[in-house]
User: Fold these one by one.
Assistant:
Number 1:
Amino acid sequence: MGIFVGALLNNLPPLLFVLLMRDFNLSFEQVGRLVLINFTTQIVIILTSSRPVDRYGVRPFITAAHLFAFVGFLLFAFAPRLFPNHPYWALMIATFIFSIGGGLIEFLISAIVQAIPSDAKAAAMSLLHSFYAWGLIVVVLGTTLMLNIVKGLNWHYIVVAWAIVPLINFFNFMRVPLAPPIKEEERTPTKELLTSPFFLLVTLGIALGASSELAMSQWTSTFAESVLGLSKTTGDLLGLSVFAALMGVGRHLYGNYGKRVNILTVMFWGSAFAALCYLVASLSPIPILSLIACSLCGFGVSLLWPGSLSVAAERFPNAGSTVFALLAAGGAAGAALGPWLLGLIADNVPSSFPLSPLRVAMLVGTLFPISMMLTLAAIRRRQTLPKGQTSV
């Protein structure tokens, strides 16, 4: 449920982008800025919380995370009505509040699972993050159903309905058993992580992986409706839902059979496949083919985030929550910049350009998975070196 709440916080607002643009006359960049605020806030919270978490334990922070999510969603739903003269400012403030919860959830859930004794940590991490994908599907299907019921009106109550989930999990985490933290004298110093070229490469990789994943998932709904001319229901169900399903399948498959395959190899070819999907989505003259490419991209990016976590955790097993905090910050940076850059590019494409603005933005987005491939090659090279040995 914790990873589901993370999926809810990151993906519900983009499903409402078209409605927000309609109701409050917002631009592509302004709705993209909400994504930027979300993940920028997560970065700040992640980077400032790892040491207090190691000192005071996980429970007070994971419960507070769900409370922030609940309160933030309530404000997101009703702030525009409470502040009708400044609705966009109200949306930004509400986004900031629920993003505090999202930041804490992002690295604490992974740290909680990593702390559970297991001989298959990478598989467990992949299986955990598969529930992010299943959560995304539930969010898309549930939101689509509710939007059809209210006919696009009173979307505020849909946000309120989803706010119940983090409230329930707030009480769950007050009593769930948690593994004890690593003792401070046994913990890998943060300085060792930040001065490790291997760790910095993995951090860059998770940022690029997050950009590859989120730039596609955050814009698929709007892309299908405003560019491909498909209905919102078609775009959400055949585009975003299938994207999430294939992402979940990829993570679930590795969770069950991952012991037999090198995670970096899978991530490399997944990145290549994602780059191909970006190209087809942006350039295909056939709308349904573009939508299929958006959907298939979910399989390509499925292991880029959890795979990065597993690679770093295996290299630094005694880093505690810090390794997940730093990686989550890198991932959040990529998740913030990727969708925002696509929105910024779309707003600045000349009207005379032969491709529509969002198609141009999607074409530029191809650089995310291509850069990920180059980063993975560098990580693979350093992984074969003895720890501490340097390489040009």
Note: Residues 386-392 have pLDDT under 50 and may be disordered.
Number 2:
Amino acid sequence: MHIRSRLLIVAAAGLLCGGGIATAAEAPLGGLGGGFGNYNNAPAQGANAMSIAAVVNEDIITVFDVQARLGLYMASSGLENTPDIRQRLMPQVVNALIDDRLKLQEARRLKIVTTEAEIRSSVDTIEQRNGMRAGGFRTMLGQANVDISTLYTQLEADLAWVKVIRKELARDTTVQPQEVKAVMARMKANQGKPEHLLAEIFLPINPGASEQAVRQLADRLVQQARAGTPFPALAQQFSQSATAALGGDLGWVVQGELEPELETMVARLEPNQYTDPIRTSSGYHIMALRERRSSGAPDPRMSVVSLSQIYLPNLGGRAMPPQKIAQVSEEIHTKAKTCADMNTLAKEVGGPGSGPITPVYLGGLPDKVRDAITELKPNQVSQPVEVGGARLFVMICNRKDDTGLPSEEQVMGNLQNEKLTNAARQKLRDLRRAALIDIRI
């Protein structure tokens, strides 16, 4: 598949407090400020590119801006660049450009500055996440006849918006202890229930919009996903849900927490499958199932262990003679009854790296080491593990097994991020309601 159909645009600016704040617009396309156009016609090919497409307070959006953002959507999503597809995308493109202007205007009002270095760093992040070499993104956009400044404008708006939210809303977003306890209690009650790792694309039916056009776009996005276009890339550019900035990621959802029509369709999926567009009261949803498990099931890989190890090199300049390795191996099994014993032996006979190891997740250890100690209890020494150039003995000193539930600190962070997300969406709605918006295409 061509590289452009595999591009995932996720700006570093889309992440906050370990989670994400949405930058996708959700306000209805109607009844705001000066009113919205009908979008029945895309800009004519012969139209003056610098003619006005929309006015947002004191800022102008040109036909060129619209055409350039459409090109960026096409290049990053892998959708076929046809007049029909471009016309269907027109409402969302104009909507996104309006939101960008509002975000940048608010940043200017608060004297918030986004630097060129921050924008370039976001481009670097996009390239890294897509496995592209440095400068590869610029090359790809050039091949698609998309000016890099189009992406820079989008990233600048996202970066500025995160700074706005941090400055204006973060200090007023607090989580009470009772809220954390309520979430922990609900999660504990749900342990053992089926749980789905989901992603979504949401396309609303806005007042005055053509439902047929929205459904056709939803059908096309499903076709693209099933043909191999990464679902996160499609969600990033086309979804109008709060999860759009995170590639549509909903995280783990316990069975029964979705709307009934969504629940029914998700239950039929196998991992890495996508639903057909699902009509709800608010619009069309496309759901992607990434994985399924029992809710809150403990994960041995998340157990935290502190260790003591003895490293006996058998290759290189510090290699021990085979007889010495055999002798020390016997001593370890007969004398090492506690981690204190292991640490003492490590000083006496161990090679470089022997001794205590600070707490680590089991899942972060090399496979051979993890397999050797997963079933061990504290103060049990492992069987010898043959690693590259050495024989290794490991003892678990302390072990804290995973309960399947997040910590209170994690729950608090998630709740705070959720509140920030909702506050950011509301602030953007408020900005739109107060704005003078005139769409002329």
Note: The first strand starts at residue 15 and ends at 16.
Number 3:
Amino acid sequence: MPTNRTTTPASEFREAVCVNVDRIYDCCKDRDCMQDLRVYLSDQDQEILESAASVKPIEAEILWSYIDVEPLAFNNGFYTVDIQFFIRVSFDVCQGKGRPQRIEGCVAFNKKTILYGSEGGARIFTSEYAPQSCDRNLEVRSNRPRATVEVLDPIILAAHICDPCDRCGCDTVDISCIPGYINSYFENDLCDREGCRRLYVTLGLFSIVRLMREVQLLIPACDFCIPEKESCFPDEQDPCGLFGQMEFPLDQFFPPNKNGSCAEGC
């Protein structure tokens, strides 16, 4: 339905409004190379590893991460961010004959960083509407900073098998540090058998860690965000009309050279 309302240009400042947002106080980006991490397998996959001639890494996927934020006692306003990643890694195992067999295991990796999050110790109470009853307060919170981690799935850089008689070093993470609910991501429960071959992997991980606080900011405002695009739905009675609205796929006929030509020095 047409209206007489006109939109305000973004350059026109109308008023100052107070908004509640998460402000990023500090952040960092990291490139972690995690060498010789122990891969914990299930009993069934461990049996396959015992007779393996070689292993071929396939992929790695982050299943879960646990994040803990604690203030630094000797430096006010700074916090340690402890992150523990739980990663599922899969391999193709060659046993000398026949087709390779797929096995999966779990890797745990601990990461720590120090970021600035300012100071403050206020307690926050909020209410929740309860229909046909008295409103209740939600669980009390503090205005301490909270951390978020943005991460890509790791890159498998290397993998090797260690025999029981070899000295492969000390495992940085014990299987007891892997929560029980991680087992739900695998067909069988993970285990740690004594006197068996061990599988180690080296992973590369890109991540961004942010430390944020919930704050109130005064910002310039132009107008309310009113949607201008109307809802549309394809007409099933007119498939040719829908086809006529599609953009011609030129890239499929003439693939673009996004990396430049060989004449430019490929």
Note: The helical segments are 43-50, 239-244, 250-253.
Number 4:
Amino acid sequence: MSWSVLLTKLSEGMLVSVEIFVLTLVFSLPLGLIVTFGRMSKNALIRNITKLYISIMRGTPLMLQLMVVYFGPYYLFGITLPRSYRFLAVIIGFVLNYAAYFAEIYRGGIESMPLGQYEAAKVLGYSKSQTFFKIILPQVIKRILPAVTNEVITLVKDTSLAFVISVSEMFTLAKAIASAQRSTIPFMVAGVFYYVFNFVVAYTMEWIEKKVSYYR
């Protein structure tokens, strides 16, 4: 196989990996904040259900979660879903998993805020929602960015787990080509692709960190 054909095929897989990456972030970041509200709720039922969800998501392998999301509807309810559901199952599995991790990162950031911030906002006449979204959340985002960056970089590498339900992202294609050609070159090229992808993500997150560090 020529280099141009190899790069073309792996580039197609890379696009799938990027899709998984972007869609996971778009949905898991806001969902993580919602889960945080549940985790910090004064309602014991909501709080305990949320804690159980986070415990399951963080305590079981993402690979297993993807299999449950994809095969679960058939084995639990006898529902046969189309092949196109594979990609949707990957997104659902990734979003549910990463939302749990982001939720705990958000919670750590929120709980690190001094109570004086809330009291000062109350004196100034801010409502609870105004206090959170205008005063607390912007500061929380600054504090949690390093931890979020670590999870985002991990997500880049985790996209390769989509192979478990036969979604042809970059690593899956590299493995198929390597098997057919009896060569490790596709793996090396895939490794370079992942490194470049991670480098761009890390550089972008570092740029964002510098942008929000406006008091330094």
Note: The chain has one domain: 3-212.
